Amino acid sequence: MKKNLLFTAIILALFSCNNNDNSSIEPQNPNENETTMKLKEFRALATSKYFYHENGFVDSISTSRAGNIPTEIQTKLHYNSENKLISMERWVDVSNETIYENDIFEYNNENLIITKKVYDQNQNLKQNFNYTYDSDGYLNNSNLTYIEGNLVQDGSFTYSYDNKKNPFFEMYPTAYIRMNQINKNNQTSTNNATETLENINWSYNQNGYPVSFQKSPVLPDDIDFAEYIYY
Questions:
Q1: How would you classify residue 14: left for phi > 0, otherwise alpha for psi between -120 and 50, otherwise beta?
Q2: I want to staple 153 with a disulfide (CB 3.0 to 4.6 A). Which of 145, 165, 211, 223 is the partner?
């Protein structure tokens, strides 16, 4: 993906220092002139900005969410010399309180993430997640079927996709994509055995990246519209 990409969704402030020192949990806000901001996303009441590391992956994310309880989330990603994502820090500012979390990732011999440990500001372990994968490197789940990088079936539900670029697929290393089930392309419909439950209509720019989508009908508790801006 070109370096001139910007995205808009649900996150607010961010920080671009590549320092892994956790002695201070104060977020570091980068100078936008020094960090490439490639993508900006507007989704419902949230706006997200994505800043990029020199390795081409996301360095930090800033999300701001409006509404009855305004929330700001700052996320900082840390990589090792092999461009493996080794940790992800978050500062969540809600109701005049800042909550800090740090995700630590462990890998198997296939360079897939097998453990995510979530620590608080006092380095206490809050949560521990374990992951296993099939022979193709996708999450082990007999209900899930993947074809060419896209989740096409989850139990009784099936999904269709376009052949365009999903910007989120290019933001992260493969291990993070597989752990979070990020699709290679953009979903265009949700179906069950008898009907289409939802259609998603995309608009694209000249480079094949989406600039907006509109859903119809909208499923309960779902987002019906989003807009993407690239720089």
A1: beta
A2: 145
Rounded CA-CA distance 207/165 in Å is 9
**Residue 186 scores a pLDDT above 90:** yes
Share of the chain above pLDDT 70, in %: 81
Q: Which pTM value belongs to this model? A: 0.80
- Pairwise CA distance, residues 35 & 185, whole Å: 27
